[in-house]
Amino acid sequence: MAQIQDIQAEQKACASMIEKARALQNTAKTDDKATTMPADMKKFFDDRGLSYDTKGNDTKHNKDEWDFNLKSLTNYQEQIGSKTQTLMVYLQDFIGQHNSFLQGANTAISNANQVLTNIARGQ
Q1: Half-sphere exposure of 111 (CA within 13 A, CB side)
Q2: What's the CA gap between 33 and 55, in Å, rounded?
Q3: What SS3 string covers 109-120?
Q4: 34 with 8: CB under 8 angstroms?
Q5: Ramachandran area for residue 57 (φ above 0: left; ψ -120 to 50: alpha; else beta)
Q6: Alpha-helical segments (H) within 1-123
Q7: Residue 38 DSSP one-character state
Q8: How far is Cα 11 from Cα 116, in angstroms, rounded to an integer?
Q9: CA distances from 74 to 40, 50, 59, 67, 71 (A)
Q10: Tens digits of per-residue pLDDT, 94-106?
Q11: Any idea where the domains of the chain sit in the sequence?
Q12: pTM, whole model, 2 decimals?
């Protein structure tokens, strides 16, 4: 369960970066000049091994370079989503096994109660 929460937090962080990147891309498009990738965004990319445009050997990007950066972020977001789905399937399977075990235990208890009742009645 903690893994799912961690992944959901990562999804939220990624969504925030996508939002920032889109805003920077729009600014670059509107002003028709490059905008600088913030340090926290660069760190986000670097920490996760995500690729970003390095044209010009700097962190300034025009609207087309932001397209590349956004594709990298959205691909990462899809990977995170796949991990969440996989973990949810595992969790549902575990819950199903747990419910099956409980049902078996309840049946055994019910049968034992019936035997004890029959013994008490002398049957």
Answers
A1: 6
A2: 14
A3: HHHHHHHHHHHH
A4: no
A5: left
A6: 2-31, 39-48, 63-121
A7: P
A8: 55
A9: 17, 11, 19, 10, 5
A10: 999 999 999 999 9
A11: 2-87
A12: 0.70
